[in-house]
Amino acid sequence: MGVDKLIPCSVKLSQVIQKSGCDVLCVIDRQIPKELVEQFNDFRSYDKAFDTMVSCFKSSKLNMPVVYSPLPELTDYHDVRCYQNAAAKSLERAIKAGFKAPLLLVPESDKFAYAPLCTVLGALSELYVPIQYREDVPDKSQRISNLSVMISSPKAEEILKEALLLESGRFVARDIGVGDPERMAPPRIEEYVTKIFKNLKVNVISNVDTITKEYPLFAAVNRAANQIERHRGRIIFLEYKPPQPAKKTLMLVGKGVTYDTGGADIKAGGIMAGMCRDKCGAAAVAGFMQIVNEKKPADIHVIAALCLVRNSVGEDCYVSDEIITSRAGVRVRVGNTDAEGRMCMADALCRMKELAVSENLPDPHLFTIATLTGHAALAAGSGYSIVIDNSVAHCTGHARKLQEIGQMFGDPFEVSTLRQDDFDFNAGKVIGEDVVQCNNLGSSRTPRGHQVPAAFLIQATGLNKHGLDSPKPLKYTHLDIAASAGELPALPTAAPIIALTKAHLN
C-alpha cells in the first residue's frame, strides 16, 4: 500500500511562515524566528519556567497563535529523542487547543546530525489514530487536517520523503500492535496484511494439520485457541525478492501473540491486562516489510514470518511437563506455558535456518523480534530494546553497530551477551529431554532472564550447529522489545523499525 495512504493527514513542506496557510506555529528547541525574539525575551524576563514548559500564546507580529515546546538544557547524556519528544508535545498542545493545520519549525542541531528527521518523526507519531477508532468513528479518524513543516536544510525534500516512508512502516506496526484481542486476532491480521502487501509474495499457513506436523511448538500454543475459529493461529510468510542478484538476505521472525492469558500457568493478580500488546514483535516485522516494499532495495532479499497465535486457556491448552519435539528434532520439555513466545517463534526460525542452508542464500542474517520478557524491561528500562547476537553475528560487531545507529535515530538499544551459562540453564534435566523450555519463575525473577530465551531459540532450532566452526556459520540476532514496544495506556511505538531500517536497508 502506498505511503500516502498510511500517513494520518496530508503533510507538506512550507517555505514562508506568513504564507503557509496554517492556523498555529509550533516552535521547538530555542531556535526561534526573528519575529518572535522580542516577545520570547519579554516572557523570559518575568517567567523563569518559560523555557521548561509547553506554552501557547498569540504573536502580534506574526498575527497567529504560537505553541512553544522547549528542549531541556542538553547534557552529554541526552540523545536525539529530546527533539522527537518536543515535536510530539508541540503537536499534542496544538491539537488540545483546537488547531487543525499546524506549521512545525524544524530546527537543525550541531549535536545531533539527524535531528531534523527525528523531529518530523516525533510530530508524525503524535498524529496516529488507533485503527479501531478510525473504523468505528470515521469522523475522528484524523487529529488534524494537514501538517506543514519548515526545514531549513538544503535536503528538506529528502528529509520529509524519508520521514513519510519510515512513518508508513510505523503506521502498519501500530495498527497491528494497537488492535484489541478481537480486532487483531490472527485471522483479522491475515486480512490486514494481505491487503497491505499485494505486491509481495504472501504464504499463509493456517491448516491445523500442517501446523501440527511442520510447526509443532507453535501448534502446542495454538491448541486451545484453535477450538475457536476466530482465534485460530496463522503463520504468515512474506517475501521480497530484489530486482538484482542479492548480496545479503534478511530473515525476520516476529512474535505475534494476539492475547496472552499465560495459558494453564495463567497470569494472575491483574497482570493479564495489556497482553494484547504481546504481538508487537510481529507488528514490527510487518512494519519493516512495509518499508522494504516501498524502498525496494536493489540487492537485498528479505523473508519475514509473522507467528500469530493466541495463548488461550481451556480444555485443550498445552501444559507444563509436556514433551514436544520441535521442527529441528529437539525434544523440548515445557516448563511454563507463559513462556509461549519462544515456542511460537522457534519452528518458523528453524524454517528460516533451513532456507538459508538449503537454498544457499547470500549472507543470511536471521532475527527474532519479540516482546519476550519482563526481565528485559527490568534490565534495560522503559524505552530501550535489547539486542543479543549469537557468536557469528557478534564477530561482525553487529549489536554494537545497531546500538550506534539506534542512538543516532532515536531508537535506542542496550547490548546483552550470550554466555555458556544461558545454554546450560536450558539443558535437559532427565533422560528423554534435550532442552527445558523455561523454569517456573517469572523472567524478572530469573537471573539472566532475557538471555536464556535467546539461548533456547538457538538450541530448539538447531542453530547451535551453525556456529563459528561449522561448515555453514549463520548470523542470528534476538531483539527483545518488551521495554520499548509501548505498554498500555501508551500507544505502540513501532520500535525497533527505524534502527533496523537504517542498519540493514541503507
What does this structure look like?
By secondary structure, this protein is an alpha/beta fold. It is built from 16 helices and 17 strands. The protein has an eight-stranded mixed β-sheet with strand order 7-8-10-9-13-17-14-15, with helices on both faces. A six-stranded mixed β-sheet has the order 1-6-5-2-4-3. It has a three-stranded mixed β-sheet with strand order 11-12-16, with helices on one face. Strand 9, helix 9 and strand 10 (300-311) form a beta-alpha-beta unit. It is elongated, with a radius of gyration of 24 Å. The model has no long low-confidence stretch (mean pLDDT 96). One of its GO terms (cellular component) is cytoplasm. This is Aminopeptidase W07G4.4 isoform X1. Belongs to the peptidase M17 family. InterPro entries: Leucine_aapep/pepB, Peptidase_M17_C. GO terms for molecular function: manganese ion binding; metalloaminopeptidase activity.
Write a brief structural summary.
Helices cover 35% and strands 20% of the residues.
Strand-helix topology:
Blueprint: E1 10-13, E2 24-28, H1 34-46, E3 55-59, E4 64-69, H2 81-96, E5 102-106, H3 115-126, H4 131-136, E6 146-151, H5 156-178, H6 186-196, E7 201-205, H7 208-214, H8 216-222, E8 234-240, E9 248-260, H9 280-295, E10 300-311, E11 323-325, E12 331-333, H10 340-358, E13 364-370, H11 374-380, E14 385-389, H12 391-394, H13 398-408, E15 413-417, H14 420-426, E16 435-436, H15 451-461, E17 475-480, H16 497-504
Parallel strand pairs: 1-6, 2-4, 2-5, 5-6, 9-10, 9-13, 12-16, 13-17, 14-15
Antiparallel strand pairs: 3-4, 7-8, 8-10, 11-12, 14-17
Helix pairs in contact: 2-3, 3-5, 5-9, 7-8, 8-10, 9-16, 10-15, 13-16, 14-15
